[in-house]
Amino acid sequence: MNKHVAPHLNRRSFVIGAAALGTGLALGLDIPFGGPAIARAADGSPEVNAWVVIRPDDTVVIRIARSEMGQGTLTGLAQLVAEELECDWSKVVTEFPTPGQNVARKRAWGDFSTGGSRGIRSSQDYVRKGGATARMMLIQAAADEWKVPVGECVAASSVITHTPSGKSTTYGKVAEAAAKLTPPTDVRLKDPKDWKIIGKGLKRLDTPGKVTGATVYGIDVKLPGMLNAAIRDCPVTGGKVKSFDEARISSMKGVKKVVKVGDSAVAVVADTWWHAKTALDALPIVWDEGENAKVSSASIAKWLAEGLDSGPAYVGNESGDVKAALAGAAKKVEAVYNYPYQNHATMEPMNATALYTADKCEVWCGTQNGEAAFAATLEASGLPADKCDVHKQLLGGGFGRRGQTDYVRQAVEIARQMPGTPIKLLWSREEDMTHGRYHPVTQCKLTAGFDADNNLTAFHMRLSGQSILFSLRPAALVDGKDPGAFAGLNAGGDAAFGYSIPNLLVEHSMRNPHIIPGPWRGVNVNHNALYVECFMDELALAVGQDPLEFRRKLMSKHPKNLAVLNAVAEKIGWGKPPPQGVYRGLAQNMSHGSYVAAAAEISVIEGAKIKVHRIVAATDPGYAVNPAQIERQVAGSFVYGLTGLFYGGCTVKDGRIEQTNFDTYNSMRIAEMPKVESIVMPSGGFWGGVGEPTICVAGPAVLNAYFAATGKRIRSVPLRQQNITFA
Amino acid sequence: MANLTINGKNFTLDVEADTPLLWAIRENVGLTGTKYGCGIAQCGACTVHIDGVATRSCGVTVNDAIGKQITTVEGLATNGVLHKVQQAWIENDVPQCGYCQSGMIMAVAALLEDKPKPTDKDIDEAITNICRCGTFQQVREAIHAAAANA
After folding, report:
1. Are residues B59 and B119 in the same domain?
2. Residues of B in contact with A345 (CB under 8 A)
3. Residue B105's CATH number
4. How confident is the model at residue A39, as a pLDDT?
5. Which of A167, A387, A526, B92, by CA, is between 20 and 30 Å from A318?
6. Contact check, Cβ <8 Å, A632/B32
7. What's the total number of domains in chain A?
8. Dihedrals φ, ψ of A355, to 5°?
9. Is it the case that residue A194 has pLDDT exceeding 50?
10. The domain boundary residue, chosen from B75, B102, B135
């Protein structure tokens, strides 16, 4: 399916799929012009159902609807299907159905979007059922062939055995017959205690090509006759192209065409990307930058600061009467924090390849949301759904950025101006750094009150800053409020506040600068958890209590939060003296359905150089599908989170983002990487995500340790702006 | 026109002498295992070997590479047998998105030529590639595993 050719959707499988509306499967329906029909994979192998294709050589092809961007979901989802399928794991391969096929088959594969650490948790039920259904049909086919009761047959490791006689066959031999059966309706899933593949730290399925250079990412797509495009969008978001002097570059080597893209960008199309980029750099472009060109980081900060004290705010979580409790408090503590814009900086810059003809438009790209990329293709091409498709490639990083479709739309708009010629659009790193969908900028004022016995009685948290939904999905706002702004601070749900405080008020003053925000791995908890967890340490200090003991007293009604916090405290040796010159800090949070905590050990040289020696991180994701990959996600989360803390922060000057490449937006190297000791402690009974939750505890754990080391409380990110760096 | 020797093969390329080697490899030769990440020799995704030295190919021109032996990630295996670094990468399940790993592997292969049993300090000094997924912990383990396999 995911080959670099036109999608092989033969008419028969299309008709059957369309007829299978409501079943979610594409199986065994008689069609008027033929005998019993089977949906087939591109190579002719029978589809047992939408999720499972079995080849005659017993290869098991598992369809993966979600995107693989490094987080390991491709392997985890395959484990879920394989567990119920009872297939031989060593014979499993995967493929991506295309969004066009999904639409044609009435969304047989469900949702393609891959964000919010939902890849596994939101599809685990139906993909396991897909595996179980296929297993039942394969066993039924063998029983039918042997003319024995199906109850006498069992399947294990792709082999079906008739227990009384000892006869056996393989999945590959009965798949053709199984595909003709009516799918069962009573499908029961295994008890988690019987899992053999789920819960194992299996190796990823997509590694071999990644060590030989064979893996094809979007940037590597090659099509016959393809040309390459480099693009420059107005440096100030909201600005427009006024004019450009095409004649100055039209004779440069390799240049084929200069095109306007939308009203804000210009692209040069050339034989090679290097020629396109070289010509684009030489192209005089006059911009109408508009009013946004007056905006700076300072003007944004001033506007946000006003929101900390005045104007309306949305309430996200409230109990008791905070104002009265603060008025009557014996002791009050107040602090103001801020967290900056951050760029995703995926290693593979944004790119997409598009081929537009009068009656067809196809796109090849890395995307976190195949269906959104498909919708963008439809819109930008003006063609209907049955004339379009998107071929998903592996992603060279996503982190939330590739859930957006701006680069897909651009590629189609360029290709539309050159019908019949495939166009690969690739952003330069500079374009990527300055046209991101940035982690939203926020500030936060926290005010807390204690009674005369040093009990925390009031907690007021007022956020002021940008809403992702307001910009990207305004229809999802709830009475104007962005519920996502309260991630980690909610009264319940999959991103709930982990402390019980009698008088609580969490509110958000929404202020939306022109810089376009987006979900940046971890999303709103990245700042919310930093604010709460650093302030918790400030509160513990104010009443002379140990930060761990102080938190524990507020967490008796949050046993899962407490369990991960206790786990890291125990493993790091909290309460016992650390090595000479080493200081510790803690943080905990709940988001994306999972409970996480971190403890850091650092030392500080000359007050400004931090060596992070060791991190202990605990995760309770409910069920752990692949603990080895969870450990990798957790370790990687500290690279992302600590990079954001130390080196990150995108600033705005004259309306544009100032950081243009890794020289000004640096990223952690191996020398700065602490040893991460990961504790995966699934408590069962729920499905939490693992790609994102841990990032948000990296920063506060280190900042709390920094305070322990220096007595200096840092309330502003990034540290580079305060001349603090890695040792 | 420029003659380059890449993975033991000679290529005559219609390319300007000041083209960055990275783009000649990717676009003119068609070997796409070598990745573009920054174009300013910061990230290391484009690392290749030039006469055995790990080099960021976005920062050197075609002209600089003429007459030299260039090895890309596609040329690291010998006679179909993976290089011990590639093998260690598979055994330690190192890559996440994998995009930076071609360059990472080339940098590590050169390090092990230079220092067959590198210390953590050697690794910290020699391996300066960016990985945004954050595979460094597995990278370090796999380097030691590959070194032990010498």
Report:
1. no
2. 132
3. 1.10.150.120
4. 87
5. A526
6. no
7. 3
8. -125, 115
9. yes
10. B75
Taking contacts as CB-CB distances below 8 angstroms, the residues of chain A near B45 are 347
Task: List CB contacts (< 8 A) between B138 and chain A.
Answer: 632, 635
In whole angstroms, give the CA distance from residue A155 to residue A153: 7
CA distance A652 to A302: 13
Q: What percent of chain B has pLDDT over 70?
A: 99
Residues 6+ apart with CB under 8 A from A583: A601, A602, A603, A604, A705, A706, A708, A709
Are the beta carbons of A701 and A638 closer than 8 angstroms?
Answer: no
Residues B67 and B98 both lie in one domain: no
Question: A165-182: per-residue pLDDT in tens?
Answer: 999 999 999 999 999 999
Best B13, B40, B61, B96 residue to mutate vs chain A (most A CBs within 10 Å): B96
- The sheet carrying A442-450 orders its strands as A314-319, A503-510, A456-465, A442-450, A331-339
Q: How many Cα atoms are found within 13 Å in the side-chain-facing hemisphere of A66?
A: 25
* pTM tops 0.90: yes
Of B37, B86, B100, which is closest to A429 when you measure between CB atoms? B37
Contacts of A147 (CB under 8 A, 6+ apart): none
Give kind and range of the element (H or E) at residue B2.
strand B2-6
H helix or E strand, kind and range, residue A637: helix A627-646
Mean pLDDT score, A229-245: 98
Q: Which of A455, A518, A435, A25 is nearest to A238 (CA)?
A: A435
Percent of chain A with pLDDT over 90: 94
Question: Do B103 and B64 share a structural domain?
Answer: no
pLDDT tens for A116-145 read 999 999 999 999 999 999 999 999 999 999
Render pLDDT for A645-666 as a digit per residue (tens, 0 to 9): 999 999 999 999 999 999 999 9
Residue A232 has pLDDT above 80, yes or no: yes
Cα(A392)–Cα(A545) distance, integer angstroms: 53
CA distance A665 to A27: 52
- Provide the residue range defining the domain that includes A84: 11-212
pLDDT exceeds 90 at position A6 = no
- Inter-chain residue contact B135 with A346, CB threshold 8 Å: no
Residue A437, both tokens: 């969908």
Is the ipTM higher than 0.85? The answer is yes
